[in-house]
Amino acid sequence: MIDIQTIKKSIPDLSDLTLLEELSSKGQIHTFEEGDILMEPGQYIKTVPLVLDGSIKIIRSDEDGKEIFLYYLDRGDTCAISLTCCSAYKPSAIKAVAEEPTTIIAIPVNLHEKWTNDFRQWKEFVSKTYQNRFEELLKSIDEVAFKKMDERLMNYLAIKARQLETKEVNITHSDIARELGTSREVISRLLKQLENKGAVTLGRNRITLEADYEDVF
Fold it and tell me: How far apart are CA 187 and CA 24, in angstroms?
């Protein structure tokens, strides 16, 4: 069983004691290392993840392997796309990757459906999740539609730095290019421009932010 106090600390939106007891007794703890893949496109979702610690990166990919970063799931979050897919009995449309060492509670799909009917707080938690993820998806669309690639790049680095609570981001130019849907050459050129502006310092597979997004654009 999972300690109820641990759940309350990680997911403060849930306080209903009966619901917490259900989570404690029926949820399963899973741990992942940085870079571990939790879900691939096309896989059927059998459990709903609730993040107890760490963070999960949600990525959309196409049949050709092209990817674009959508949003992060932090402590206390669950994935709206997972909820939608499991409720509609459809395969996953996203890729989920542990951004850092991460611990989740996995809730069987049938319990999610039951709890939606039995617990008002679970229903409200799910509704809030849909709203938050919808707003984040709109931001992702705005990024692609209205911002230049250099702005998207700096914003991507700023979000990643805040996520990991560090100014030093360890990532390759190729990985950034893949998640922003462009080429490595474009990213390398733009990073050099940002370095010339004093916004970042470049190292081997390492980018140190010297300025906030707002200070650059």
Answer: 45
Burial class (CB in 10 A: 0-12, 13-18, 19+), 215: exposed
Q: Residue 30 in contact with residue 106, Cβ under 8 Å?
A: yes
pLDDT in tens, 120-166: 999 999 899 889 888 888 888 888 878 899 999 999 999 999 888 89
**Which of 6, 9, 56 lies closest to 27 in space, CA to CA?**
6
Kindly report each contact of residues 179-187 with a partner whose C-beta sits within 8 Å and lies 24 or more positions away, as own/partner.
179/59, 179/67, 179/68, 179/69, 180/68, 180/69, 180/149, 180/152, 180/153, 180/156, 181/66, 181/67, 181/68, 181/144, 182/149, 186/149, 187/153
- The first and second tokens of residue 159, run together, are 């979000």
| Beta-bridge partner residues of 91 | 44
pTM: 0.78
In total, the chain counts a number of residues equal to: 217
The residues facing 68 across adjacent strands are 60
Dihedral class, residue 198 (left if φ above 0, else alpha if ψ from -120 to 50, else beta): left
